[in-house]
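Recap slide: Lipoprotein, sequence and predicted structure.
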Amino acid sequence: MALTGRAALLAALGSIPVGLLEPSWTGMLAVNGPIALACALDCALAAPVRDLVLARSGDTSVRLGEPAEVHLTVTNPSSRKLRARVRDAWPPSSWLPGTEAAASRHEVVVPAGERRRLTTRLQPTRRGDRRADRVTIRSYGPLGLWARQGSQVSPWTVRVLPPFTSRKHLPSRLARLRELDGRTSVLTRGEGTEFDSLRDYVPGDDTRSIDWRATARQNKVAVRTWRPERDRHILICLDTGRTSAGRVGDAPRLDSAMDAALLLAALATRAGDRVDLLAHDRRPRAQVQGRSAADTLPSFVNAMATLEPELVETDARTLVSTILRNAPRRSLVVLLTSLDAAPIEEGLLPVLPRLTQRHTVLLASVADPHVAAMTISRGTVDAVYEAAAGTQTQSQRRRTADQLTRHGVHVVDATPDTLAPSLADAYLALKAAGRL
């Protein structure tokens, strides 16, 4: 555009005979002519934009809420010094509100034949893949009067992963897991547990654990210690249908379900169990199967990063068929879905017997804390109506949970802040009881 403007200016000046110009125009040309010449010279001395070579490096993934740095290397192969302003464009959700202008714009000077590295600091506000847009460069001449401008594409993708805020609960649940494994003084016994070792009887021990043969041999009471069976199969199913799009607090229900799934996966792999993932609505959206213990959590996080709720009704029949196909042997199936009456009664309950007769089923749902706050509202007519609506909603959820329980399903209904630890506790309780 700069060259086009200069050409137009010179053409305009050359097409007007000087003798036909009024005195005022003649004086103006006498003053502006040197300025136009200086602008043209400044533009001619600016480094060409199209010859610049761009390359990227830096972070390729980051947890939601954490910063990421992407480096842009600008190489100037021309014989002129580059004095430029650079805009490194990314999608709007790559920045905190109000920070894009300061983070995406850079000033750089690159001598001829040299290179410089610019750093763009991203702060994504949503999960998923963030792809770099065009890099726009405005190259100024030595006087700063005129500039050349152009854009180039320099591809780069940063994957924004789930934040996994519930990992703060992992140490306390691992301590309880060690108790179940017999590594501390508190030992449990349940159906289906494995014999571990013998130790002296302590008052309060279950008398069913006494080993009478060992007691007769050593003339003191000996008890067997037990540990839960390992290498159980757990299939975590995320419902990505329309009910998962509802926002509870500042995030969709799906995000809270993901956080709970990650804590359960981390805990179960430490317990020696095999954990798979299925995200489904009308069809599978993501699957993770057959990963090693070390690779399970990274695979889960990577698969969840791009998941978004689909505004369609979840097909429960297809979901159950997919679960049965992916879990041919007895497993713990964890359904992270809604407790709304209609989807459960019309969709899940008719096909639930196919699932419960083969697997242990644990259903976890995100409850809205605002509903509990509504039930205690008083003082005005509107507040009383709110309290009645909140109480009715809670009653419907309890009735739905009772229906599922009668079908042999273990139900966890908790707010976003407590869903992850509550689900982990339910898993540990099943493991302690030998129900896996």
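The chain has a mean pLDDT of 85.
The two ends are 71 Å apart (CA to CA).
(End of recap.)
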